[in-house]
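User: I'm preparing a small set of examples for a lab meeting where we compare how different chains pack in three dimensions. I only have the primary sequence for this one, and I'd like the structure in token form so I can line it up with the others. Please keep the answer compact; I'll paste it straight into my notes.
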Amino acid sequence: MELQMNQAQLKELLKATLIEVLEERGDLISDLIEEALEDVALARAIEEGERTNVVNRNEVFKLLEKKE
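Assistant: Understood. Below is the structure token output for the 68-residue chain.
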């Protein structure tokens, strides 16, 4: 038995499958979006850090000790 499918049928099958996955496992999509947003935020933080002045390690620890 040979299965033949035209492009429109394949497209509909893929759409139906994607909708089913989204309905049943929406948490996966949420996790993917969350990770993507975290990656963007990290990239922006790195870029911002590259534009700022370099600070001595001891200066950072002095500031942290003051906050305790």
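A couple of notes for your slides: Residues 19 and 26 are 10 Å apart (CA to CA). The radius of gyration is 25 Å.

User: Perfect, thanks.
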